[in-house]
User: Fold this.
Amino acid sequence: MARIIELRVDQLEPGQVVHAVARAIARGDWVRGGADGQIDASKLGPGQAGTGQAGAGQAGTGQASGQPGAIQQAGGHQGEDGQRAYSQGAASLGASNQASGGDDDAIYVVLLTTQGCDFVGCGLKDLLKAETGASVGAYGFANTDNCECVVQGNAGDYFGHSQVSGTLTVMGSVSDSLGAMAIGGLNVVLGDAGNRAGVSLRGADLLVRGDVGSHAGYRMESGTLVIGGNAGPNLGAQMRGGSIYIRGEAQSISSDIEEARLREPDRLKLSLLLMKAGIRASALKEFRVYRKPD
Amino acid sequence: MNTKKSKGSGDGSKRISEGRFVPKSLAERLEHSPGLGDRTDTGCRITSQTSGRKLYWPVPVFTRLGIDTPASDSLRLVLDRLRKRCGISVVGNSLQQSLERSLDDGLSIAPIMVDEPCSLRSLMHAEQMELQFFRSRSGGGGGASEYYLADEWIPKMPSDLMQVEHLAKRVELYRSISDQPTVVVGACIAAGSIYHDVRYLIDSGLDYVCLLTDAVGGLMPARRWRFESIPRGIEEAKRAIADSGVEGFSLFLSGAIDQMEQPLDWIFDGVQAFSIDSVLASRGPAAVTSSASSDESFSSFLGGSTGYATPSAPSYDWLLDEADSWLTDWSSLRRFFMSR
Assistant:
């Protein structure tokens, strides 16, 4: 039986979410499906979650969890008090359960936050999914490990800092230093990213569907930065390793990197990342790849 | 970088002879318990300038051996025992997270390598945290096993931080991830541009700075490096603290101790706690075993050869006795004198 936890984190110290999740798991605070109290999570299915909540019945119509597309299908952004997001999340869980055949240990956490709360979801580990119903502030979902995390809004500086594994998705845009020092996993931004996206990246994959600001890939050591739009000045400055794929134009490119030929492994890598992000990989030929010269 | 071995300065006895320290009078001594083994009056309190929290240390002594040397499990085990038996605080990741704590135990200070991915889960129950502004190398596995390059105490800034405000936010993150949001967070810097570095750390909201004027790398044999003269280091740091206008910002010192009176001098000068690594390194069985078995001979090209007998793991039990002995002597000395 998959289990769901609902946490109102704006009443907590910002970084205490991970402790609250641990406590909730220890106490067995499994789901409340709305205002009416306990429900059995095993009975949740597509369209059945969030009893009594407007719009919940239409959410999560069989979309496979793990794809941003599924979240988009669930509809609704920037839940005012997070309750709506919870209902949508619960519906997504039902879909996920069906898709995965039901995982006994899967835990789904819905974080009910106010807009722009810092440090949301830091240090979370081994959760099926964690989702916020609002934008998050600095260091959102930093150092997460083996979690699928979704922000239904925008994110602040250092989103996904030191990420270890799993998938992070921001439905809106992010501020500066996206995915700094991330060592693994995938970080997807469906909007734009600010300056220094992928700064000091240590092996993770970052994908920005829109534009990025200046100094993207600054001091990057390994990993992949995919830019679907344009880049600001100084792309790849002081880059020591890894690859930058860019579809649009860069205002200026650092002399520390040089363009390489897009080979088949690059196309495969790009296809895979775009597929994971739920983005159609129809324009692979338009991408260029930059690396540190040998 | 100056790597000369430290030489005796004699500052401590000189200052004592100059009358900077005077023995307590008999009348004052009568007011106190005569228990010589009692060290409770020699503790210190570290104040968090942000939360106002006071953190009690049973003795104002710490060791960085767990982080400055290639730490084996046997060394970590001994350091844990050192923490419990002598009350010495230990910088380094503890081998075992024991729930049993005594008021007389030293603290376990969680190190944070500033230019490595942070491992927040390891900080959740930290009693105290210390940022290490040195070059380090990640051992992989999620950044949990980080260590120094053994021979290089190279000052290093976090490569993903550009402004003071960014470091302040990072420090806030560390505090907030802890189960004690008032946790004391400090930083250790190799003495270089001390004044500006300390001002930077104070502006970033840290609670204390540890000045590394000397470093000890390895114990068998011990290797020592000197970066800066201790008096100048203390003077610069104190000037920076005074100029910042922040009260209660603490200063730690990891310097070479040539005479037992020196730390008294440092405490008189405003240092809250000091490291005894140089003492321990000088008392170790280095001379005897330097050419024999050592699991720290990582630089030896014979290390990976299968044609030689594998050396047995060194025992660090002597650390306990040496530390206990030195601490007893020093505590007695401290009780004997009082500052004017």
Observations:
- Residues 42-291+309-334 of chain B form a domain with the TIM Barrel fold (CATH 3.20.20.70).
